[in-house]
């Protein structure tokens, strides 16, 4: 079974529409897919409705990737199998959406002062139905030939301590875990191998996440060396966290692909070990 529990659509900073994302998952023969857009679950019912019209089975897991702050670092927490209709959860996500919008407006104002006008409107146009993120600003800056590529947009303007950086006001890790679990889901520490942390600080993060009540961590995610994968597996076992795996797919490229190379090591208990796959599949049942 091919399982991918981390990907993004155009409802956040992914570039594919929901139908395009689902079709790509079919082409890559993915069996279970969690759609985990940043701080929003808007795409989930769209995905479920689209999949019900498809001939090939695909189990859609309702997911989210919540943005949090921890010791000055932006840390992401995945929620899996969340109840997207939970009223309190929806109210809390509206709070996150407002924080994102306010930050985007401030980024636009800073770019304006740097001599780059109308970037908020242009980023918003690129975002479309999704929330405006720094990635949308970067894409707008590339489109307007302000920079050559997205990486330069972050290095010169949007990255930490750069000219248009705005410190986010995110929730805490504890709040993210609580929000997810109170909405019936499982909380997973996203891509721990990608944070710019020393081994000592990474251990502190994983330990803190465990003490906050977190359920699992991504043992397998994109751009990890074989040695790093072994280390993530060791951390999961040491801190008694379930293992998850996800591509963190945003758009087609040569580095990440839906469902590719995501098998967990045999010595790690998977986050899905006690999931009722039949019941989850029924939510995405095939309609002939």
Outline the structure in words.
- It is a single chain.
- This protein has helices at residues 18-27, 43-51, 87-113, 119-127, 134-143, 150-158, 173-182, 199-211, 226-238, 277-283, and strands spanning 3-4, 32-35, 59-70, 73-80, 171-172, 186-189, 216-221, 242-246.
- It is of the alpha/beta class and 288 residues long.
- The protein folds into 2 domains: 3-85 and 172-283, Metal-dependent hydrolases (TIM Barrel); 93-158, DNA polymerase, domain 1.
- Strands 1, 2, 3, 4, 5, 6, 7 and 8 form an 8-stranded mixed beta sheet that branches.
- α5 (134-143) crosses α6.
- The model has no long low-confidence stretch (mean pLDDT 94).
Which labels suit this protein?
8-stranded mixed β-sheet, DNA polymerase, domain 1, alpha/beta, 288 residues, 2 domains
Poorly predicted sequence stretches spanning 5 or more consecutive residues: none
CATH superfamily of the largest domain: Metal-dependent hydrolases
CATH topology of the largest domain: TIM Barrel
What quaternary form is this?
single chain
Please give the largest β-sheet: 8 strands, mixed
Radius of gyration: 19 Å
CATH architecture of the largest domain: Alpha-Beta Barrel
In DSSP terms, counting alpha (H) and pi (I) runs of 4 or more, how many helices?
Answer: 10
In total, the number of strands is 8
Helicity range: 40-55%
Q: Give the rounded overall mean pLDDT.
A: 94
Distance between the ends = 23 Å
What would the principal axes of the Cα set say about the shape? globular
Percent strand equals: 5-15%
Structural class: alpha/beta
Whole-number total of structural domains: 2
CATH top level label of the largest domain = Alpha Beta
One letter per element, helices H and strands E, the order comes to EHEHEEHHHHEHEHEHEH
């Amino acid at each position: 079974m091919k399982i991918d529990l981390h990907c993004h659509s155009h409802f956040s900073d992914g570039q594919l529409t929901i139908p395009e994302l689902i079709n790509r998952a079919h082409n890559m023969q993915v069996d279970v897919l969690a759609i985990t857009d940043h701080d929003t679950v808007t795409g989930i019912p769209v995905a479920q409705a689209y999949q019900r019209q498809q001939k090939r089975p695909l189990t859609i897991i309702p997911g989210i990737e919540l943005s949090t702050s921890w010791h000055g670092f932006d840390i992401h927490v995945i929620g899996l199998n969340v109840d997207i209709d939970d009223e309190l959860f929806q109210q809390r996500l509206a709070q996150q959406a407002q924080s994102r919008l306010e930050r985007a407006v401030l980024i636009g104002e800073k770019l304006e002062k740097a001599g780059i006008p109308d970037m908020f409107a242009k980023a918003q146009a690129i975002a479309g139905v999704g929330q405006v993120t720094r990635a949308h600003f970067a894409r707008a800056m590339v489109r307007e030939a302000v920079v050559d590529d997205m990486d330069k947009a972050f290095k010169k303007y949007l990255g930490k301590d750069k000219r248009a950086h705005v410190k986010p006001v995110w929730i805490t890790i504890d709040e993210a875990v609580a929000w997810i679990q109170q909405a019936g889901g499982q909380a997973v520490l996203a891509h721990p191998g990608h944070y710019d942390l020393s081994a000592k600080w990474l251990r502190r993060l994983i330990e803190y996440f465990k003490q906050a009540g977190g359920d699992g961590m991504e043992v397998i995610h994109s751009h990890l060396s074989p040695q790093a994968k072994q280390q993530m597996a060791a951390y999961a076992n040491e801190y008694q966290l379930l293992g998850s795996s996800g591509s963190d797919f945003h758009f087609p490229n040569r580095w990440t692909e839906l469902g590719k190379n995501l098998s967990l090591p045999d010595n790690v208990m998977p986050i899905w070990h006690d999931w009722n796959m039949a019941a989850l599949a029924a939510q995405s049942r095939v309609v002939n």
